[in-house]
Design a protein that fits this description.
By secondary structure, the protein is mainly α. It has one domain (about 10-100): Rossmann fold. Helices cover about 50% and strands about 0% of the residues. It is built from seven helices and no strands.
Length: about 100
């Protein structure tokens, strides 16, 4: 898992994986390096969204143990409960920033 606090995770992730040093890592060659999710901020920092990061991480590290976790549903519910965003606002503003997480 890698994270960037200064640029979007997706672009940072792509830049890192193209460097010779990262291509030498077995995890990189095996496709087991993932960008830590971010919407407006990384889920890896001390923020209310850390719980989403923990759920995402648990499912990435132990997919069989968390196969029943509907992460897209959890994320949308989180934004409704914590930020009072209705479904349409969430889908229009937040969800596009989380495309790699929601795939």
């Amino acid at each position: 898992m890698i994270t960037s606090f200064h640029s979007p995770s997706d672009s940072f992730f792509e830049d890192i994986l193209t460097t010779p040093q990262w291509r030498q890592l077995r995890a990189s060659r095996d496709g087991k390096v993932f960008p830590f999710p971010a919407d407006f901020y990384s889920w890896a920092q001390p923020d209310v969204r850390w719980i989403l990061g923990v759920q995402w991480l648990a499912q990435k590290l132990h997919p069989s143990l968390f196969s029943d976790l509907d992460l897209p549903e959890e994320i949308e519910s989180f934004y409704l409960d914590m930020y009072k965003l209705d479904g349409r606002t969430y889908r229009d503003i937040v969800a596009p920033r989380l495309e790699t997480v929601l795939r």
